[in-house]
């Protein structure tokens, strides 16, 4: 019998890990490349609704992994406006 | 009272939507740019575990949105190997 919480934690760790290289790259190069702020905003709204969904269903793996993803994408959103003028350099 | 399923469907639609521009761009330009196949693979494994988690908890919004994300990322993974030699053009 597999424990859903452990499965959710492993799943959340992997999907969270996969987001980090983009954030690190944007921060290191101070360049948002071809990121679209509209898409980041849609993603932040969607992820926030998943956090809400996690609270309604009382599912910690859903809450934590999506809250982490919100954090990463809020950072990307801030970077977008900090670095957008670096796009052509 | 908010229905969790409707919330999950809206959340899943938004997070799914936000993935499409990257896939469309890769297919249209036949160029994977700086995508990393290792990260796509980690993401596919993580998303597949979320689908499994959804089945264990019998949550359709989790199953559908993550299955869609698996599909998008399997396409990206295939595109990676089809187009990786176009990176320098």
TrEMBL record, chains A, B:
Gene3D superfamilies for this protein: 1.20.1280.290
The keyword Transmembrane helix belongs to this UniProt entry's keyword annotation: yes
Annotated TM spans: 6-24, 36-56, 62-83
UniProt entry keywords in alphabetical sequence: Membrane, Transmembrane, Transmembrane helix
Pfam family name, one: MtN3_slv
The protein, known as: SemiSWEET transporter
UniProt source species: Chryseobacterium tagetis
């Amino acid at each position: 019998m597999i424990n859903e919480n452990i499965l959710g934690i492993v799943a959340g760790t992997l999907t969270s890990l996969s987001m980090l290289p983009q954030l690190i790259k944007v921060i290191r190069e101070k360049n948002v490349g071809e990121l679209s702020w509209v898409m980041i905003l849609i993603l932040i709204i969607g992820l926030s609704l998943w956090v809400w969904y996690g609270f309604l269903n009382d599912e910690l793996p859903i809450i934590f992994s999506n809250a982490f993803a919100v954090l990463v994408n809020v950072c990307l959103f801030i970077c977008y406006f900090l670095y957008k003028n670096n796009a052509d350099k």
